[in-house]
From TrEMBL:
Pfam families: Hydrolase. Its cofactor is Mg(2+). This is Phosphoserine phosphatase. PANTHER family: PHOSPHOSERINE PHOSPHATASE. The keyword Metal-binding applies. NCBIfam families: HAD-SF-IB, serB. It is an enzyme of class 3 (hydrolase). One of its GO terms (cellular component) is cytoplasm. CDD domains: HAD_PSP.
Amino acid sequence: MRLVVQGPAISMAHLTHIHGLIGGYTQFVQIAEHAYYLPVAENEYVEVKAFCAAQQIDCALVADAHRLQKMGLCVMDMDSTLISIECIDEIADMMNLKPQVAEITEAAMRGELDFSASLRKRVALLKGLPETALQRVIDERLKFNPGVQHWIELCKQQGIKTMVVSGGFTVFANYVKQTLGLDYAVSNTLEIMDGKLTGQILGDIVDAQRKADELIKLRDRLGLTARQTIAIGDGANDLKMMAAAEVGVAYHAKPVVQQQARYALNIVGLDGVANLLMISV
């Protein structure tokens, strides 16, 4: 195992304290500007985790087998994972409905509501909105999360295929795919007639099971094994996808997701995934 600690607040004093909690003779090795690892024996390290949480430091016990060069596919959620917004909430804001829609979105991401039913309910509220509002969301509000471009570039360098699988909408997923240079994108399609949203979704909804199915389908098509897959998400509808992957990473995620994911990042950006799966010892 290796203990990976990372975050902009990390200092030598922090590393010294963590080392004292663990004991042993090996020293921390720096792997990035604000990231370090320490070879450790398998253990819970409860005190270390509690200390890191209190000091705003991301901490993870990473299996030695989890290395970037062993991976072949990374599947990622979009809203609040690759990008900083929930697109449907921002669309709703164009109709002065953001509080109502955001409340439903938040409950769905916590796993308190059925995702498909809640999505249909939210989309129905958007009936009559001009199609041009979707482009406004892209132009005015869509921002990528910290470290995204670094992480995607690293995947490309390692020959890892990348896919965004989103319970959001095609217009945004295709923009994210094109901008970041991802290999694949799967998402929902809003029905538009006469330049306006009808309040309906075309085809089957991309829900939790569909996300997992898309990962498995692409994995098999690429001739990869489950051990060569990474999944990154933040909401309850990402849990099945993350469970289908060898490496599941909860990124600034809801509590239910952090509890079930193999690894969790709460402080650093998506470039922190690279530090978890560092290439060389």
